[in-house]
Amino acid sequence: MNTNSNNSSSTYDQPVEKKDKFLIGTILIVILVLAALAVIGFLCIKQGPDTIQGQGDATEIRISGKLPGRVAEIYVEEGQRVKAGDTLVRIHSSLVDARLEQARAMEDAARATDRKVDAGTRSQIIASAKDVWAQARAASGIAKKTYERMQNLYKEGVVTEQKRDEAKAAYDAATAGEAAAKSQYELALQGPQREDKEAASAMVNVAKGSVKEVDAVLEDQYLIAPCDGEITVIYPNVSELVATGAPIMSLQKDDHWAVFNLRETSLKNMKNGTVLKVYIPALDKHVDMKVFYIRALGTYANWQATKATGDFDARTFEVKARPDKKIENFRPGMSVVLEDIK
Q1: DSSP state letters, 141-205
Q2: What's the rounded Cα separation, in Å, for the pair 263 and 314?
Q3: Helix, strand, or coil (residue 102)
Q4: Domains of the chain by residue range
Q5: Kind and range of the H or E element at 95?
Q6: What average pLDDT does the segment 247-275 reach?
Q7: What digits encode the pLDDT tens for the residues 102-134?
Q8: pLDDT tier at 206 (50, 70, 90 boundaries)?
Q9: Do domains 60-92+221-252 and 256-341 have the same CATH topology?
Q10: What are the φ and ψ backbone dihedral angles of 287, each rounded to 5 degrees?
Q11: How far is CA 325 from the centre of its chain?
């Protein structure tokens, strides 16, 4: 009985062992086939060229002036095209207007004094010079008090530094006016001499210079477009205050180009004047652009070698190229793909 049982178990194990061997063999064959396919693919499939992508760019000018004041009118909108000489914005400054009136009044006073000196010293001339000095002294006192109040308010954080500086400038101008008026009064007392006439004439020139200086500042109350282009950003709104040199708006010139960041290993056949064949996906256009700018970027843009030996770090260069003629609807920020170097 035991012998038959052992024979039966042996007969049952033989098919199981054959099945396991068949399964293992099949797995090995599949692995070998996959390995062979991988080797063949590695040997036969060539890696395609790297895609070099850049983007469109253009010169952007920030429109600003030397007149501090309040934005009175804005004559353009964002996205609007303008031509060179178009008026863009008007800035109003009551303080500068007052300075202009003051400068013109000082010029009139200086001219009057000059005429009186030429006519000879009379009691009326002396009295007039004294009155002018008194007026100038009063104006200086008021300007001083105004400046002191502004200084205290500035220390308390109530007014801006610009307002404090404007009050200081008005005080300095009033002080100078007082000194000039006093000088004229003293000259009138001494009588008309050659030096007196020269001094009076010099005061006229100084007053004329002050008027021209204020006029030069007021020239920037109307800001105009320096070139053709498109208004991209307007920073302040109407009625807002702007400081000297503060940007009012940005004007984008019509000088579009493409910029690429390339490793130095890609610059073998590239120099200023090299023609690049590029593709603009947004416009579905193939165009030629000519290189006009090549510059190395900082070390932050270096490509670091991955091997300790047998490789080297590569610098990154910024390359700019512009088309020979304007490309319709080409805008800064659009992708530009480098296809070939001619």
Answers
A1: HHHHHHHHHHHHHHHTTSS-HHHHHHHHHHHHHHHHHHHHHHHHHHHHHH---HHHHHHHHHHHH
A2: 6
A3: helix
A4: 60-92+221-252, 94-218, 256-341
A5: helix 94-119
A6: 90
A7: 777 777 777 777 676 666 556 677 778 788 888
A8: confident
A9: no
A10: -135, 165
A11: 26
- List the structure tokens of 328: 């319709």
Q: Tell whether domain 256-341 is in CATH 2.40.30.
A: yes
DSSP string, 242-278: E-TT---EEEEES--EEEEEEEGGG-TT--TT-EEEE
Contact 188, 174 (CB under 8 A): no
Instruction: Report how far residue 268's alpha carbon sits from residue 184's, in angstroms, rounded to the nearest whole number.
Output: 76
Measured CA to CA, the distance from residue 61 to residue 197 in angstroms comes to 50
Q: Token digits for 256?
A: 């579009």
Average pLDDT, the chain: 79
Tokens 């469109």 appear where?
56
Question: Amino acid letter at 285?
Answer: K
87: left (phi over 0), alpha (psi -120 to 50) or beta: beta
Q: Which of 333, 319, 287 is nearest to 60 (CA)?
A: 333
Nearest to 117 by CA among 202, 192, 207: 192
Q: How far is CA 102 from CA 98, 108, 147, in A?
A: 6, 10, 17
* 139-174: pLDDT as tens digits: 888 888 888 888 888 888 777 888 888 878 888 888
Query: What is the fold, at CATH topology level, of the domain defined by 60-92+221-252?
Result: OB fold (Dihydrolipoamide Acetyltransferase, E2P) (2.40.50)
Spatial strand order of the sheet with 81-82 comes to: 60-63, 249-253, 229-234, 81-82
Distance (Å, rounded) from C-alpha 148 to C-alpha 142?
Answer: 10
Report residue 151 CA to chain centroid gap: 33
